[in-house]
Amino acid sequence: MIKADLHVHTCYSGDSRTTPQQAVARCEAVGINCLAVTDHNKIGGALEIKKIAPFQVIVSEEIHTRNGEVIGFFLQEEIPKGLPVDETVRRIKEQGGLVGVPHPFDNLRQSALQRCSLEEILPQIDIIETFNARVMLGRHNTMAADFAREHGLPASAGSDAHTVNEIGNAYVEMPEFDNPQGFLAALSQGKIVGRISPPWVHIWSSWSRLRRW
Predict the structure, then answer these.
(1) Residue 196, helix vs strand vs coil
(2) Interacting residues of 194 by C-beta distance below 8 A, sequence separation 6+
(3) Contact 123, 130 (CB under 8 A)
(4) How would you classify the pairing of strands 155-158 and 127-132?
(5) What is the mean pLDDT of the chain?
(6) What are the distances in angstroms from CA 93 to CA 97, 122, 205?
(7) Among 30, 42, 174, 211, which is least packed, fewest CB within 10 Å?
(8) DSSP state, 32?
(9) Residues 6+ apart with CB under 8 A from 204
(10) Averaged pLDDT, 40-47
């Protein structure tokens, strides 16, 4: 079994200062041996970590569409932000990638995918994030888990780390895999482990964003 944190940000996101080297060191320290690097609208951080990590790295991107955020897993090329969600999904699928929806019911985030858009792309969704360590209200994770179960979709978990010490706050214990379809099969056998991050991490992200500006 591996421990996979499936939602992590680096300094390639505007609201994080975690370097690729720091991310790898943290994973090794806490036993995370599979990482989906999901920077905002960028895959450069994921590609950099993939070069240096002694464990499996899934090149991913948290993409801000016109209708809210989706995650593309197993990407080959960066997808631009600001496209309609159906166009973004099409581009993910064209690369052989998987479509994930992060924090789908966290209505405290303006970036969450709109409910009408969630229903619209439902046939194309591969993964629902059912435990995000950065939600402010635990019931939002519960709602996501109920939605995934209702629609028979694999459940993922991620720290949504924007600071290095958050990495590993949520992960999936799952079998090893070799490709996107194997990943989905492994997720269906996975066990989600996680704890909610403290509120101060949101202040740190805001400070990092202001510093970048």
Answers:
(1) coil
(2) 131, 133, 157, 159, 169, 170, 171
(3) no
(4) parallel
(5) 95
(6) 5, 14, 30
(7) 211
(8) -
(9) 162, 163
(10) 98
User: For the segment 115-170, what is each residue's pLDDT rounded down to a tens digit?
Assistant: 999 999 999 999 999 999 999 899 999 999 999 999 999 999 999 999 999 999 99
Q: Please report which helix (H) or strand (E) contains residue 169, including its range.
A: none
**Cβ pair 30, 167 in contact under 8 A:** yes
Residue 22: burial class (beta carbons within 10 Å; 0-12, 13-18, 19+): middle
Considering Cα of 109, then 110, then 111, then 113, what sign does the dihedral take? positive
Domains annotated on the chain, with CATH: 2-212 (3.20.20.140)
How many angstroms separate the CA atoms of 62 and 7, rounded? 9
Beta strands 34-37; 56-65: pairing state: parallel
The secondary structure of 64-115 as a DSSP string is EETTEEEEEES-SS---SSS-HHHHHHHHHHTT-EEEE-STT-TT-TTSPPH
Could you tell me the pTM of the whole model?
0.94
Type of residue found at 16? S
Distance, in Å, from the CA atom of 119 to the CA atom of 1, rounded to the nearest integer, reads 33
User: Side chain identity at 144, as an amino acid letter?
Assistant: A
